UniProtKB/TrEMBL annotation:
<keyword id="KW-0732">Signal</keyword>
<feature type="compositionally biased region" description="Low complexity">
    <location>
        <begin position="37"/>
        <end position="47"/>
    </location>
</feature>
<feature type="signal peptide">
    <location>
        <begin position="1"/>
        <end position="20"/>
    </location>
</feature>
<protein>
    <recommendedName>
        <fullName>DUF732 domain-containing protein</fullName>
    </recommendedName>
</protein>
<feature type="region of interest" description="Disordered">
    <location>
        <begin position="21"/>
        <end position="81"/>
    </location>
</feature>
């Protein structure tokens, strides 16, 4: 009897000890969880996350307020008269005019680099807008490229074109996938081409007859008078 009571006492003591440990561990865990929770984040934006104003596309004029011509001055040095003409009405308020000027200079560099290797490619890039802002950049910043601009102003990009001037045009591509057709007002085809599938590298021409209401082309990049 004594042995059973002693054994029971030992078991009871062990059970109480385990219960106390379990209870204490739970409190410790709760405290750890409470400490692990981060404080609520502030809703105020971080100034570092606010993007700086970017320069407008070279061929686009700002829609908002712009710097007056009297304030078109760089942080260091001076602008030339032609550079000021280019920047006039083009620089948004609170923007460094030099950043806008750089966009125009980069357009000039692209035209010059391309024209040095392939004048047709440079002309096509101006026609299609592949070099944004090329027209104004050439006019004011790189007038040596005006022959490219003059050729581009007589041309047009591939795709549908309504009421084109009659005449013979040359595609500024050597791709064999270039096709074209001229339609009248009633939709009938007046002319189309090429008559035979071109080989890679062949020059492709299109004769647009008078009375053409729509000229459509695909895979031809751009056209200029032949």
């Amino acid at each position: 009897m004594y042995r059973r009571s002693a054994a029971a006492a030992v078991l009871l003591t062990a059970a109480l000890t385990l219960t106390a440990c379990s209870s204490g561990g739970g409190k410790a865990d709760s405290g750890a969880e409470a400490k692990a929770k981060p404080p609520a984040s502030s809703a105020a934006p971080d100034p570092a996350d606010t993007p700086a104003p970017s320069a407008p596309a070279p061929d686009a004029k700002p829609t908002g307020p712009v710097l007056p011509d009297a304030k078109l001055t760089p942080k260091t040095g001076t602008f030339t008269a032609q550079e000021k003409k280019y920047l006039s009405g083009r620089v948004p308020e609170k923007m460094d005019p030099a950043a806008v000027l750089q966009s125009g200079q980069e357009a000039c560099q692209r035209v010059q680099y391309t024209a040095k290797r392939d004048k047709d490619a440079a002309t096509g890039a101006v026609i299609t807008g592949e070099i944004p802002g090329a027209k104004d950049a050439i006019t004011h910043l790189c007038p040596d490229q005006k022959p490219i601009l003059a050729a581009a102003e007589k041309g047009f990009p591939e795709g549908p074109r309504t009421s084109p001037a009659a005449g013979t045009y040359r595609a500024l591509t050597q791709a064999s996938t270039c096709t074209w057709e001229a339609k009248s007002k009633d939709g009938s085809i007046l002319a189309s081409g090429p008559e035979t599938p071109p080989n890679a590298g062949d020059k492709i021409a299109a004769a647009i007859p008078s009375g053409t209401a729509e000229f459509n082309s695909s895979g031809c990049y751009a056209w200029i008078p032949a």
